[in-house]
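Why does residue order matter? Because the sequence determines the fold. Keep that principle in mind as you read this record.
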Amino acid sequence: MIDLFFSYAHQDEAMRNELEIHLAMLNRNGLLRAWHDRRITAGQELDHQISQHLEAADVILLLLSPYFLASDYCYEREAGRALARHEEGSAVVIPVILQPCDWQESPFRKLRATPTDGKPIAKFPNVHDAFLEVVRDIRAAAAALKKAETPVPARSEATMSRYGSVEQPREEGRSSNLRVKKSFNDRDKDAFREEAFAYIARFFENSLKELQSRNPSTEFRFRALSVTGFTVAVYLGGAKKASCHVWLSEASSFGLDIAYSANDSATTHSINDGLRVENDGFQLGLKTSGMSFSRSAGDGLLTTHGAAEYLWSSFISPLQ
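Structure:
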């Protein structure tokens, strides 16, 4: 089993959570034990715990984004020590490119990044494809460390044929093209729609708190109208600079499942953008409405995280 350490900026916590979900099979198969600072319990010393696990890690993931590069703690303390361990051969450091950032001007440029060619995860039409690439690279690192090896089964009559012994297929020799077409009923779509909306609401609330912590001159108001809608406003010097209303829409509203209005009025339902629940034959996802011609999220399906980022970029644009 390998010990894996997440080095990341807290602004990227949602994407770290997504990656940890994708590592589930490595965890279930007893190949990996992951750690990050959210595992620190009340009363424990933060710096000591982080340093202890950083020193014990076999694989260190640097989750690179503009926030990571701007963080003195991430860049200098965690990444600095990680690179030193990598150079001395006591750990493997893997840069994971979450968001577009100037990482190629950093010391990390000499390392092979993931996804392939350092393409940011956020730039993939379907981020699950990107996370799968990252998982495969971590699995390969585990194999190289010789900590993920499984014993070869002893020969038996079942593994013999009149042509001689039958070699057991190795895991790295199997195809990655194993998807099977699925069908989705109305119940599946309704459940996905409600879960996606709940995620977007949490994403907005957490992002607003972080926005205020990084920009103390801002104030915000997040108001949950019910389980089916919320409004948001950001104030700068007492003046409202950005606002929106997001809600679970009826099918008659331009065919949208989640609607977005660029104002925080809960009574005026002017729709500026939105999302539809669709599927590509393999999984459910969210498709943008196409109403916002100034922005594009690509032709593929968005995950709930990608959809939340898409709507947040509309909301935050007046402040940028």
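The chain has two domains: 2-173, 186-319.
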